Amino acid sequence: MSLCSALCLAQDHLYPEDSLYGSGISSIEYHQYITKAFSSAFLRDVILKVVTIPSFHPESVLYLKKSEESYYVIYVEAETHYWGVNMQVYQPNPIIKCNTILPKPTAIDIEKVWASELLNTRYSKSSTLGLDGTSYHFSTSFKWLPSNNSPRPEMVGQAWSPRQDSKIGKLVNLMSVMKNYCLNPSTEENIQKSIINLTKK
Question: What is the DSSP string of 49-62?
Answer without folding.
Answer: EEEEEESSS--EEE
